Protein backbone atom coordinates (compact mmCIF):
# COMPACT_ATOMS: atom_id res chain seq x y z
CA UNK A 1 0.00 0.00 0.00
CA UNK A 2 1.20 3.56 -0.72
CA UNK A 3 2.11 5.61 2.35
CA UNK A 4 -0.16 8.32 3.74
CA UNK A 5 0.11 11.69 2.02
CA UNK A 6 1.22 14.51 4.32
CA UNK A 7 1.98 18.21 3.90
CA UNK A 8 5.66 17.24 3.36
CA UNK A 9 4.65 14.91 0.51
CA UNK A 10 2.85 17.80 -1.18
CA UNK A 11 5.73 20.24 -0.65
CA UNK A 12 8.18 17.69 -2.10
CA UNK A 13 5.89 17.17 -5.11
CA UNK A 14 5.95 20.92 -5.81
CA UNK A 15 9.72 21.03 -5.52
CA UNK A 16 10.06 18.06 -7.90
CA UNK A 17 7.51 19.46 -10.38
CA UNK A 18 5.11 16.52 -9.87
CA UNK A 19 1.42 17.41 -10.24
CA UNK A 20 -0.85 17.01 -7.22
CA UNK A 21 -4.31 15.49 -7.71
CA UNK A 22 -7.29 16.37 -5.55
CA UNK A 23 -11.04 15.69 -5.69
CA UNK A 24 -13.93 16.20 -3.31
CA UNK A 25 -15.83 13.35 -1.64
CA UNK A 26 -18.57 13.22 0.94
CA UNK A 27 -19.09 9.53 1.70
CA UNK A 28 -17.33 6.19 2.29
CA UNK A 29 -17.77 4.47 -1.11
CA UNK A 30 -16.58 7.35 -3.27
CA UNK A 31 -13.75 8.27 -0.89
CA UNK A 32 -12.64 4.62 -1.12
CA UNK A 33 -12.56 4.81 -4.92
CA UNK A 34 -10.40 7.96 -4.81
CA UNK A 35 -8.07 6.55 -2.16
CA UNK A 36 -7.52 3.31 -4.10
CA UNK A 37 -6.89 5.29 -7.29
CA UNK A 38 -4.06 7.16 -5.55
CA UNK A 39 -5.50 10.69 -5.31
CA UNK A 40 -3.27 12.77 -3.02
CA UNK A 41 -5.98 14.98 -1.46
CA UNK A 42 -9.62 14.21 -0.70
CA UNK A 43 -11.45 17.40 0.26
CA UNK A 44 -14.74 17.17 2.11
CA UNK A 45 -15.84 20.42 0.51
CA UNK A 46 -18.72 22.56 1.60
CA UNK A 47 -19.87 21.98 -2.00
CA UNK A 48 -21.65 19.26 0.02
CA UNK A 49 -24.43 21.84 0.39
CA UNK A 50 -24.95 22.01 -3.38
CA UNK A 51 -24.10 18.61 -4.87
CA UNK A 52 -25.34 16.37 -2.04
CA UNK A 53 -27.91 18.49 -0.19
CA UNK A 54 -29.35 20.19 -3.29
CA UNK A 55 -29.01 23.81 -2.13
CA UNK A 56 -28.28 26.81 -4.38
CA UNK A 57 -25.06 27.64 -2.56
CA UNK A 58 -22.84 26.38 0.27
CA UNK A 59 -23.96 28.74 3.04
CA UNK A 60 -26.35 26.48 4.94
CA UNK A 61 -23.86 23.65 5.62
CA UNK A 62 -23.39 23.18 9.39
CA UNK A 63 -20.45 22.06 11.50
CA UNK A 64 -22.25 18.87 12.52
CA UNK A 65 -23.06 17.96 8.91
CA UNK A 66 -19.45 18.55 7.86
CA UNK A 67 -18.12 16.52 10.79
CA UNK A 68 -20.44 13.64 9.88
CA UNK A 69 -19.36 13.57 6.20
CA UNK A 70 -15.68 13.99 7.07
CA UNK A 71 -15.92 10.96 9.36
CA UNK A 72 -17.34 8.83 6.53
CA UNK A 73 -14.57 9.94 4.18
CA UNK A 74 -11.74 9.48 6.72
CA UNK A 75 -12.85 5.91 7.34
CA UNK A 76 -12.14 5.10 3.67
CA UNK A 77 -8.81 6.87 3.22
CA UNK A 78 -5.61 4.97 3.96
CA UNK A 79 -3.43 6.87 1.48
CA UNK A 80 -5.08 10.19 0.62
CA UNK A 81 -4.84 13.21 2.89
CA UNK A 82 -8.33 14.13 4.11
CA UNK A 83 -9.01 17.85 4.38
CA UNK A 84 -12.26 19.23 5.83
CA UNK A 85 -13.79 22.48 4.64
CA UNK A 86 -14.72 24.90 7.44
CA UNK A 87 -18.40 25.84 6.94
CA UNK A 88 -19.61 29.43 6.48
CA UNK A 89 -19.61 31.27 9.85
CA UNK A 90 -17.66 28.54 11.64
CA UNK A 91 -14.49 30.70 11.68
CA UNK A 92 -15.90 34.24 11.57
CA UNK A 93 -16.64 34.80 15.26
CA UNK A 94 -14.00 34.69 17.97
CA UNK A 95 -10.61 33.13 17.26
CA UNK A 96 -11.15 30.72 20.19
CA UNK A 97 -14.44 29.51 18.72
CA UNK A 98 -12.82 29.11 15.28
CA UNK A 99 -9.95 27.05 16.75
CA UNK A 100 -12.42 24.88 18.68
CA UNK A 101 -14.44 24.26 15.49
CA UNK A 102 -11.35 23.43 13.44
CA UNK A 103 -10.06 21.12 16.17
CA UNK A 104 -13.26 19.06 15.98
CA UNK A 105 -12.37 17.98 12.43
CA UNK A 106 -9.09 16.46 13.64
CA UNK A 107 -10.37 15.12 16.98
CA UNK A 108 -13.80 13.77 15.98
CA UNK A 109 -13.64 13.20 12.23
CA UNK A 110 -10.13 12.01 11.36
CA UNK A 111 -9.18 14.92 9.09
CA UNK A 112 -5.51 15.81 8.72
CA UNK A 113 -6.14 19.48 7.92
CA UNK A 114 -8.88 22.06 7.40
CA UNK A 115 -9.58 24.48 4.55
CA UNK A 116 -10.93 27.98 4.93
CA UNK A 117 -11.79 30.69 2.42
CA UNK A 118 -10.22 34.15 2.30
CA UNK A 119 -6.98 36.06 1.87
CA UNK A 120 -5.34 38.69 4.05
CA UNK A 121 -8.60 39.01 6.06
CA UNK A 122 -8.38 35.45 7.46
CA UNK A 123 -4.64 35.40 8.20
CA UNK A 124 -5.04 35.83 12.00
CA UNK A 125 -7.27 32.74 11.97
CA UNK A 126 -4.77 30.74 9.89
CA UNK A 127 -1.99 31.65 12.32
CA UNK A 128 -4.12 30.65 15.33
CA UNK A 129 -4.95 27.27 13.74
CA UNK A 130 -1.31 26.56 12.93
CA UNK A 131 -0.30 27.51 16.49
CA UNK A 132 -2.84 24.98 17.75
CA UNK A 133 -1.32 22.28 15.52
CA UNK A 134 -4.06 22.35 12.87
CA UNK A 135 -2.65 22.41 9.31
CA UNK A 136 -4.47 24.83 6.98
CA UNK A 137 -5.25 24.73 3.26
CA UNK A 138 -6.11 28.31 2.26
CA UNK A 139 -8.49 29.26 -0.57
CA UNK A 140 -8.31 32.52 -2.53
CA UNK A 141 -10.02 33.83 -5.66
CA UNK A 142 -13.65 32.98 -6.24
CA UNK A 143 -15.03 32.21 -2.79
CA UNK A 144 -18.33 30.33 -2.66
CA UNK A 145 -19.04 31.51 0.88
CA UNK A 146 -18.86 35.15 -0.29
CA UNK A 147 -21.30 34.60 -3.17
CA UNK A 148 -23.59 37.42 -2.01
CA UNK A 149 -20.75 39.83 -1.38
CA UNK A 150 -19.20 39.07 -4.79
CA UNK A 151 -22.59 39.44 -6.52
CA UNK A 152 -22.59 35.86 -7.84
CA UNK A 153 -20.06 33.17 -8.77
CA UNK A 154 -17.73 35.51 -10.70
CA UNK A 155 -14.23 35.04 -12.11
CA UNK A 156 -11.78 37.15 -10.07
CA UNK A 157 -9.43 39.40 -12.08
CA UNK A 158 -7.67 41.73 -9.64
CA UNK A 159 -4.15 40.38 -10.18
CA UNK A 160 -2.36 42.37 -7.47
CA UNK A 161 -5.00 41.65 -4.80
CA UNK A 162 -5.03 37.92 -5.64
CA UNK A 163 -1.23 37.74 -5.50
CA UNK A 164 -1.17 39.64 -2.20
CA UNK A 165 -3.86 37.35 -0.71
CA UNK A 166 -1.89 34.25 -1.74
CA UNK A 167 1.37 35.65 -0.34
CA UNK A 168 -0.32 36.60 2.92
CA UNK A 169 -1.88 33.18 3.53
CA UNK A 170 1.50 31.56 2.89
CA UNK A 171 3.12 33.96 5.39
CA UNK A 172 0.38 33.20 7.92
CA UNK A 173 1.31 29.50 7.79
CA UNK A 174 -0.98 27.78 5.26
CA UNK A 175 0.69 24.65 3.80
CA UNK A 176 -1.09 24.92 0.45
CA UNK A 177 -3.64 27.14 -1.24
CA UNK A 178 -6.61 26.58 -3.55
CA UNK A 179 -6.78 29.10 -6.40
CA UNK A 180 -10.33 29.27 -7.72
CA UNK A 181 -11.90 31.07 -10.67
CA UNK A 182 -9.18 33.34 -12.04
CA UNK A 183 -7.46 33.82 -15.41
CA UNK A 184 -4.68 31.30 -15.96
CA UNK A 185 -1.91 33.92 -16.19
CA UNK A 186 -2.65 35.13 -12.64
CA UNK A 187 -2.58 31.58 -11.23
CA UNK A 188 0.69 30.95 -13.11
CA UNK A 189 2.26 34.02 -11.53
CA UNK A 190 1.04 33.08 -8.02
CA UNK A 191 2.30 29.51 -8.46
CA UNK A 192 5.76 30.80 -9.45
CA UNK A 193 5.94 33.27 -6.56
CA UNK A 194 4.79 30.95 -3.75
CA UNK A 195 6.81 28.25 -2.00
CA UNK A 196 3.69 26.31 -0.97
CA UNK A 197 1.75 24.26 -3.55
CA UNK A 198 -1.18 25.84 -5.40
CA UNK A 199 -4.20 23.68 -6.22
CA UNK A 200 -6.27 25.12 -9.06
CA UNK A 201 -9.95 24.96 -9.92
CA UNK A 202 -10.86 27.08 -12.92
CA UNK A 203 -7.35 28.57 -12.69
CA UNK A 204 -5.56 27.02 -15.68
CA UNK A 205 -2.95 24.31 -16.17
CA UNK A 206 0.09 25.79 -14.41
CA UNK A 207 -0.98 25.31 -10.77
CA UNK A 208 0.95 22.68 -8.83
CA UNK A 209 -2.20 20.55 -8.70
CA UNK A 210 -5.84 20.45 -9.72
CA UNK A 211 -9.09 19.89 -7.84
CA UNK A 212 -12.64 19.35 -9.12
CA UNK A 213 -15.94 18.63 -7.42
CA UNK A 214 -16.48 14.87 -7.80
CA UNK A 215 -20.19 15.11 -8.65
CA UNK A 216 -19.40 17.53 -11.51
CA UNK A 217 -16.51 15.57 -13.05
CA UNK A 218 -18.25 12.19 -12.83
CA UNK A 219 -21.59 13.57 -14.06
CA UNK A 220 -23.38 12.34 -10.94
CA UNK A 221 -25.76 15.29 -11.04
CA UNK A 222 -27.42 16.55 -14.23
CA UNK A 223 -27.68 20.27 -14.68
CA UNK A 224 -25.43 23.31 -14.86
CA UNK A 225 -21.69 22.69 -14.97
CA UNK A 226 -19.14 25.53 -14.97
CA UNK A 227 -16.87 26.02 -18.03
CA UNK A 228 -13.78 24.65 -16.24
CA UNK A 229 -15.34 21.24 -15.50
CA UNK A 230 -14.43 18.34 -17.76
CA UNK A 231 -16.90 15.44 -17.43
CA UNK A 232 -14.87 12.23 -17.20
CA UNK A 233 -17.97 10.02 -16.84
CA UNK A 234 -21.74 10.27 -17.02
CA UNK A 235 -22.94 8.42 -13.96
CA UNK A 236 -26.38 10.10 -13.95
CA UNK A 237 -27.07 8.56 -17.38
CA UNK A 238 -25.92 5.08 -16.28
CA UNK A 239 -28.07 5.34 -13.12
CA UNK A 240 -31.11 6.49 -15.16
CA UNK A 241 -30.73 3.44 -17.43
CA UNK A 242 -30.37 1.04 -14.48
CA UNK A 243 -33.40 2.38 -12.63
CA UNK A 244 -35.52 2.41 -15.82
CA UNK A 245 -34.61 -1.25 -16.52
CA UNK A 246 -35.51 -2.23 -12.94
CA UNK A 247 -38.90 -0.50 -13.16
CA UNK A 248 -39.62 -2.18 -16.51
CA UNK A 249 -38.66 -5.67 -15.28
CA UNK A 250 -40.66 -5.40 -12.03
CA UNK A 251 -43.72 -4.13 -13.92
CA UNK A 252 -43.57 -6.92 -16.51
CA UNK A 253 -42.76 -9.60 -13.88
CA UNK A 254 -39.35 -10.63 -15.25
CA UNK A 255 -37.52 -9.62 -12.04
CA UNK A 256 -36.84 -11.54 -9.85
CA UNK A 257 -36.13 -14.46 -12.17
CA UNK A 258 -35.02 -17.96 -10.95
CA UNK A 259 -31.43 -16.98 -10.21
CA UNK A 260 -32.51 -14.36 -7.67
CA UNK A 261 -34.93 -16.65 -5.76
CA UNK A 262 -34.39 -18.74 -2.59
CA UNK A 263 -35.62 -22.33 -3.20
O1 LIG B 1 -16.27 23.08 -1.45
C1 LIG B 1 -15.53 22.69 -2.36
O2 LIG B 1 -15.76 21.65 -2.98
C2 LIG B 1 -14.36 23.49 -2.67
C3 LIG B 1 -13.65 23.20 -3.95
C4 LIG B 1 -14.40 23.87 -5.03
C5 LIG B 1 -12.23 23.60 -3.90
O3 LIG B 1 -14.05 24.39 -1.96
Concise overview:
The protein has 263 residues and is of the alpha/beta class.
Question: Can you give a write-up of this model?
Answer:
The chain has 263 residues and is of the alpha/beta class. The chain has two domains: 7-232, TIM Barrel; 235-263, no CATH class. The protein contains eleven helices and eight strands. It has helices at residues 7-16, 28-37, 48-51, 63-76, 95-107, 123-131, 147-150, 159-172, 184-193, 214-217, 235-252, and strands at 20-24, 41-44, 81-85, 113-117, 136-141, 176-180, 198-201, 209-212. The chain has an eight-stranded parallel β-barrel, surrounded by seven helices. Helix 6 links the parallel strand 4 (113-117) and strand 5. It is globular. The structure holds 3-methyl-2-oxobutanoic acid. 3-methyl-2-oxobutanoic acid binds at residues 24, 43, 45-47, 85, 178, 201, 211, 213. 3-methyl-2-oxobutanoic acid (KIV) binds next to loops.
The secondary structure category is alpha/beta
Which ligands appear in the coordinates? 3-methyl-2-oxobutanoic acid
Number of strand segments:
8
For this structure, the CATH topology of the largest domain is: TIM Barrel
What are the secondary-structure elements, in order, as H or E?
HEHEHHEHEHEHHEHEEHH
- For the termini, the CA-CA separation is 42 Å
State the share of residues found in helices, binned by percent: 40-55%
- Annotation field: number of helices: 11
CATH architectural type of the largest domain = Alpha-Beta Barrel
- CATH class category label of the largest domain: Alpha Beta
Give the count of structural domains: 2
Shape: globular
